[in-house]
Amino acid sequence: MRNVNKNILPDAGTLYLVPTPIGNLGDITARALEILQAAELIACEDTRLSGRLLAHFGLKSKLISYHDFNEEQRLPKLLAVLESGGHIAVITDAGAPGISDPAYRIVRAAIDHGITVSPLPGANALIPALTGSGLPLDRFFFEGFPPQKSGSRKNRLTRLVDFEHTLIFYESPHRIEKTVRDCLEVFGDRQACIAREISKIHEEFIRGTLSEILDTTRQRKLKGEIVLMIAGATRRKKRQS
User: Fold this and answer.
1) Which pLDDT score is estimated for 4?
2) Would you say residue 40 has pLDDT above 70?
3) What is the CATH number of the domain that holds 23?
4) What gap in Å lies between CA 227 and CA 69, rounded to an integer?
């Protein structure tokens, strides 16, 4: 990796939100690499995992752990660096910081303290999954991970029944069958799509009705990162209020 002049960064401390590859390492951007090399500190979920990523690109930036369980504890130290004029890059294990991953608290705190927040575009599972799904793209609603327990999950899904937007969920491989089953029960047999392992060797789109997709999840043990997308309600099929 070529040396990067730290003068590319502004004089005032800035919080950068830097997406990292979700699979194919070639998806990282040139600007992301420049920021990661020039930043005084990189806040990451797992220092070992992120350390391997940085080493792949020949970067030796200083890492500090920043995850769901230590966000509040880390905030004072991170803010002190920013307020002293230092630059911090926030990354997650994969994808865009803040999308079902840590970042909200440090972003909110930086804004409250008058610190510039600069989000970089880049790799994430949400958009490529949606664009490859074959479902309507004009309006969509991202729900993130649904509740783990079936009762809570169905209650949440029921609130989404009348949404005309394409619905997007993240889900784990060991819960996907149960979640699809609950979606079929709540929404009826809508068109849907599972996207898994986006940008990786085993990238796959499973398209069809929810009942067809449920059959697939029963017959195969799906692995990897999963995005579940479901067509929104049609006007004539909305529940009667």
Assistant:
1) 46
2) yes
3) 3.40.1010.10
4) 25
